[in-house]
Write a structure and sequence with these properties.
Elements lengths: L1 H32 L6 H37 L13 H23 L2 H34 L5 E5 L7 H7 L21 E5 L7 H13 L5 H16 L3
Length: 242
């Protein structure tokens, strides 16, 4: 029953942090769609302080939420844990938003010459970056706790509900990670995956074993980049079925 409760807690926590991240990201997308394209740099200089503050606040909030989640999750596993809460980097947030904001707008303008297309591209990229940046608060709190606290034996990547992309499915299929040297959580914009703590070595769940078997079948006779290409073809074919 404890394992089921821990899994339920993880799903609930993941649902809550995704809602917050996606809400902030949608708000930023709407702001970007209303950009003053006559002077994109001046527009960005005007709005960016408030945007950066909102993303910074969201990331901090999710880091604090992760602390509570990690403590509860550990207790359900019979472990007392003191999580290590990350401090957001304002500089990192500012740079990521600038690249996906005015820089993305100018890049698309150079390609298409269309202000409308450039605005849509900027809005989309800002939305994706904002989701990733806000979720970094919870993800990095989990990862840093794993690196610095011996109570956590490992972690497992889990999807965010719905269909995971080929990249995320590949990483989920690798199963549990128990090495402290393997504590980087790889993500992309709009990625909804999370890291679930593990406190002992345990068998992989059925969904992971299924992905592992699919990987072996899809990549048989290949390795490296060729294996990844084969996996993407297999994954895309599976998910294109009705």
């Amino acid at each position: 029953m404890t394992a089921a409760q821990a899994a339920q807690l993880t799903r609930h926590f993941q649902s809550q942090v995704l809602k917050i991240a996606e809400l902030l990201a949608r708000r930023l997308r709407i702001t970007a769609l209303r950009a003053d394209v006559s002077d994109i740099d001046a527009w960005w200089d005007q709005i960016s302080p408030a945007v950066q503050k909102e993303i910074l606040t969201g990331q901090s909030a999710l880091a604090r939420m992760a602390r509570g989640y990690l403590q509860q999750h550990a207790l359900l596993n019979g472990v007392a844990l003191s999580p290590v809460v990350v401090e957001p980097s304002a500089q990192q947030i500012a740079e990521a938003l600038r690249v996906t904001g005015p820089v993305a707008f100018k890049t698309q303008m150079a390609i298409s010459g269309s202000e409308a297309a450039a605005t849509r591209t900027m809005a989309s990229q800002l939305q994706g970056a904002a989701t990733r940046l806000v979720l970094q608060g919870s993800r990095e709190t989990t990862m840093r706790t794993f690196r610095e606290r011996e109570e956590m034996a490992g972690w497992r990547r889990i999807g965010g509900g719905g269909k995971s992309c080929a990249f995320c499915s590949m990483l989920i299929g690798r199963g549990a990670v128990y090495s402290k040297e393997s504590s980087e959580f790889r993500s992309h914009d709009r990625c909804s995956c999370a890291a679930e703590p593990l406190y002992r070595r345990e068998p992989e769940p059925p969904e992971v074993r299924r992905l592992q078997e699919q990987w072996r079948e899809a990549t048989a006779g290949t390795s490296g980049a060729a294996a990844i290409r084969a996996w993407r073809l297999f994954h895309d074919g599976q998910n294109s079925r009705p």
